[in-house]
Every structure is written in C-alpha cells, then in structure tokens.
Amino acid sequence: MKSTSIILSAAWIATIAASFTIGSKLRPDDTAHATGGSIAQQIKNTRSTQRTISRARPTGAKQRGASAINRTGNNFASDAAQIATIMANNNPMARAESLIALINSLNPNDFEQAVVEFRKLGITRERMSEYTMLLHAWAKSDPVAALDFAQNNTSTRFARQTILTSWAADNPDAAFSWAINNHEGEDANPWLVGVIRGITTNNLTRATEIMTMLPYSRERGEALTSIIPHITKQGKEKATAWVEAISDERLRTGGAARIAGFMAQSNPSEAAEWIMNLSDSESISRATGEVAGIWADKDLNAAVAWTDSLSGNAKLRAAREVVMRYADKDANKASSWLATMPNEPEYESVVRSYIRSTAEKNPELSLAQIPRINDERTRNRYYERIVGRWIQQDENAAQTWVTQQDNMSETMRKRLLQMSQRRRDR
Description:
The protein is an all-alpha fold. The protein has helices at 10-14, 39-44, 46-53, 73-88, 92-105, 111-120, 128-141, 143-153, 158-170, 172-181, 191-199, 204-213, 218-233, 236-244, 249-266, 268-275, 281-298, 300-309, 312-329, 331-338, 348-358, 363-368, 376-393, 395-404, 410-425. The protein is elongated, with a radius of gyration of 28 Å. The N and C termini lie far apart (76 Å). The relative contact order is 0.05.
C-alpha cells in the first residue's frame, strides 16, 4: 500500500450507491485541529492558515502548476485499461473491490491521471459512487492538488464539495480556510457546504456555526440536510435545544421542520409528540405540516385523526398536506372531511389543495368546492381551467354540469359554454 489505505464497511459493500467510508494514513499535520474563538475570528485568520496548507502536503505531492506525474506512459495506459475494465463490470460489489485495490496502489502523484482516465469514460449517475471514492481518496492524499484539478477541469460543485468533505474530516481549519479564500461575491459560499459535511460527525457545534454564516439559500438548505441526521441521533431533548438556540427565525423554523420530517420517516407519532415540545409557534406550525404529509403517506387514517386533534395554524398546515393525500385515495371521503373544516378565510388554502388534487380525475367534486373561494377572479380562474380540461375529456358531462349550476355568475356560465362551443366549431 503506497499512500492511502481504504477501509470499507460491509454495509457500504452491500449498498454501494448509498454510502461509503474511506480511511487513510494521515499525515502529522492532518490530525484534527482544536479550534478556538468565534467563526468571525477564524475567518480573519484564514489568510495565515492558507499559507500553512502547502506545508501540510506530503513529500512528492503535486505543486501548483507543476507536473505531478512520475509514472511511465505504459503505467498510464495500464491504469486507463484497468479503470475501463473495472467500470465495465456489472457487479457493483466487484467494481468497488477492484477500484479500492487500484486506489491502494496509487502514489500521491498518480491520482490526477486516474481521475482523468475515469472522467474520460463519462460521469454518469451510475458511476457517481466510484467517482466519489476516487475524489475522496485523492483528498486524503493531497487535497490541494485535488482541488486545483477540480477548479480547472470541472464545471459543477460536486467534485470540490466532495474533496472538501474528505479534507475537512481530517483538517477542518485548512479546509475551512480554502473554502473562504476561494469564494467571491455576496452569494452563499457553496464550498462551506462541503466543509460542513466533513466536520458534522466530529464537531456538530462548529458545523452549526458555519451553517449560520450562510444566508437563506439552496446552500444553507443543503448544509441543514447534512446536519439533521446527526442532530436526531442525540435524542429529542437535544434536538429541541439545538433548534431553539438558532436566532435566525427562518433557519430555526426550517430546522424544526427538517428534524420533525426526519423523525416522521421512522415514527410519525413520535415526531408529532416532539413537535409539541417546541416553544415557537411558527416552528410548531412548519413542523406539523412536514409530519402530516409524511404520516398521511404512511397511515392516512392516523394522520386524519391527528389533524383533527390540532388547532390554530398547526391544524391548518396539517390539513393542507393531509387533504391532498386523502383526495388521491378517496375524493368523496376527502370532500366530506373538508366540510368539517372551519369556514374561515385561512382555510381557503386547504380548499385549494383539495381543488388542485381532484381537478383532473374528479372535476365535478373539484368544481363543487370553488364557491368556498372568496376572491372572484380566483374562482373564475379555477372554473376556466378545470372546465376547460373537462371539456377535452368529456364534453357532454362538462356542458351538462355548467348548465345545472346556479351558484355562479351568468357571465361565467356563458363563458364556459362558449369554450365548449368553440371546441365543437374547430
């Protein structure tokens, strides 16, 4: 074994597309750094930290702008052929084992050519797991060279974030410094997402601090997604404390919803119980909607009963999610349940959810709810869309329904009948 030893869990071998763990012989400078001071102070120190990165690289590693490859052309050809052979194997377990063997044979300077040859095969969804392995292993050997290559040869964030994740697990300060120094502009820093993923397991507090640096964005959502499983592992009380310690209201409510949704995947009733321990009403409301949808997919009757037990905004959010699933399963029963909802303006969003869910398969039931919409322009828009689609599916039934309605304006009735007439005149 020349540079990097690979440790693969049996679970990863069984589910190669799901996850993997690659370990390595770490260099002395790569041991986890104790970090003191605030994130703001750390950012101020990134310039000096960045200057130390080059000293953390192994002897013989590629330097910026220098040729890193010392192997012969024949070895290149051999590696290329070996990679092609590995990826041609339809057995994912065999592919993983063969690729690990190849990675273990590589010197630090060999990774670039291995990645180049792999990329020549085409980066498809089916090959992403193996591509991730190569990047992860390269980051263990020479993260700066790996990032240099990714900066110059890839157009998406995937490679750089993957490399940073691997690097941050070993040297969070250096990875953080690179992420800060290689981002320009006021937008959310995508490289911090990779850093967060790498440090979450060992330092959840720091991962959270870095996440709060990000503005509301896709990047912050990705960071939150990577943190949530680790939060829930700590238990419900700590999960509650973590949520309520977040000062940013949008992030706090989003975090509560994500945690509740994660819990609900395995135990909706437990997630529902956890929600009620939150002190922030908006967090309760957001989390309730998340759990309600997941619960309804798993056990509709239980979700309906739980929604009925709620009140206020929490009930409103839950009903909006549940009624869609209910309508898909039994539109008539869902209509009856909808009739039990308060006839208040706030519940129009629940009515609209039902209307949209039934418009295509049960247009008559969908149209019957439109009078509950207060705004006339919105009502008319729904009438035109649903009746127009119904005319295309069953013109006679749609026309009969229109002529029998006495709770719509005469102007709207004529407009809908004209839609039917224009279709016949074509």
